[in-house]
DNA sequence: CGTGTTTGACCCGCGC
DNA sequence: GCGCGGGTCAAACACG
């Protein structure tokens, strides 16, 4: 697949978070002129729970409800109810991670207005074929390569005789200076690759929980370097570590809930004006490991006060918006 | 020492 | 068959 845009073959949802100043700039300068938002677009507060359920291992019904909730068609030829903001190449906002692999050419690919919004199920023709490739690899193992028997045995035992189902995927776009957005789960990075036509590498993460095969890819949009594209693959087979402590309030106010709800909220351009993007809050350390360290080292405590405040502001706003 | 990251090598599918 | 690009593996390394 030559397409390096995950939104062309994954279940995709556009999210944008911005700080107030930047959204004003966007709207004043670009958004309204070059891209349209569906005026009838509705954003029920159930987004919050729906997305969380998806991330916590919900059924495909959740995917459907998500897609419908976001006004997306289930077929691939999306009518693009929501269009992403225009690409703004911001070269001073490049990430600093090392790139071992040089990218041959960084030429700009013409942006189609719907390029980031189209969605498809995994059964669509445009999906990845990585699972079939794995199966084939395992078949080759059966042929008897003595070299890597030990590591191949486990794979064989895992997949032999059954065709592994393709994992459902969905992707988020988030305006953030942080690449790896905290979602409440613990992830282990297992790879990084240069992306064709993009100066930004793609990172591969796997859920650290045993028996959980959920993966996620994180990459920065080459069209707008301030946008982080996170693609989840699979569904967690365990509870979110951030919500495991049995404290409903803590769970509600956990960074995981905060971030996902923030992303959902920020899908609507009008809401973008209401909230700070947590990740561009100058009071927050711009540090990938901030939330990870927080969860690992201070799991008994709630988020900092400003996070409480932000989240409560958002919830209050949501309630206000949906009151008759 | 346990956990997570980095990074070169490798595999696979696909197009030519 | 060959090269390319995406995805994964695993040894080496970093860090608390």
Automatic annotation (TrEMBL):
The keyword Nucleus applies. This is Transcription factor. Coiled coil: none annotated. Residues 89-108, 126-139 have a biased composition (Basic and acidic residues). Pfam families: WRKY. It is found in: Nucleus. It comes from Datura stramonium (Jimsonweed). Residues 176-241 form the WRKY domain. Keywords: DNA-binding, Nucleus, Transcription, Transcription regulation. Residues 109-123 have a biased composition (Low complexity). InterPro entries: WRKY_dom (IPR003657), WRKY_dom_sf (IPR036576), WRKY_plant (IPR044810). Residues 77-168 are annotated as: Disordered.
């Amino acid at each position: 697949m030559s397409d390096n845009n995950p939104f062309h073959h994954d279940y995709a949802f556009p999210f944008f978070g911005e700080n107030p100043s930047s959204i004003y700039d966007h709207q004043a300068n670009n958004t309204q002129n070059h891209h349209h938002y569906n005026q009838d677009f509705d954003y029920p507060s159930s987004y919050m729970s729906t997305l969380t359920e998806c991330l916590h291992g919900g059924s495909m019904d959740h995917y459907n409800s998500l897609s419908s909730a976001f006004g997306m068609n289930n077929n691939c030829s999306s009518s693009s109810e929501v269009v992403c903001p225009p690409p703004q190449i911001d070269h001073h906002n490049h990430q600093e991670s090392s790139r071992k692999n040089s990218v041959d050419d960084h030429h700009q690919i013409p942006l189609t207005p719907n390029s980031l919004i189209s969605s498809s199920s995994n059964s669509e023709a445009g999906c990845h074929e990585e699972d079939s490739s794995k199966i084939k690899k395992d078949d080759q193992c059966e042929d008897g390569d003595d070299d890597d028997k030990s590591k191949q045995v486990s794979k064989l035992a895992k997949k032999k005789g059954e065709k592994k189902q393709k994992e459902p995927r969905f992707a988020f776009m988030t305006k953030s200076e942080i690449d790896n957005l905290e979602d409440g789960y613990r992830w282990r990075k297992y790879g990084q690759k240069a992306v064709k036509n993009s100066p930004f590498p793609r990172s591969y993460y796997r859920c650290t929980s045993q028996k959980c095969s959920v993966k996620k890819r994180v990459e920065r949009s080459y069209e707008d370097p301030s946008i982080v594209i996170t693609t989840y693959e699979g569904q967690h087979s365990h509870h979110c570590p951030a919500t495991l402590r049995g404290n409903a309030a803590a769970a509600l106010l956990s960074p995981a809930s905060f971030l996902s709800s923030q992303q959902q909220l920020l899908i609507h351009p009008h809401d973008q004006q209401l909230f700070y993007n947590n990740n561009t809050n100058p009071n927050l350390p711009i540090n990938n490991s901030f939330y990870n360290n927080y969860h690992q080292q201070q799991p008994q405590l709630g988020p900092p006060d400003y996070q409480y405040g932000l989240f409560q502001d958002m919830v209050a706003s949501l309630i206000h918006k949906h009151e008759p």
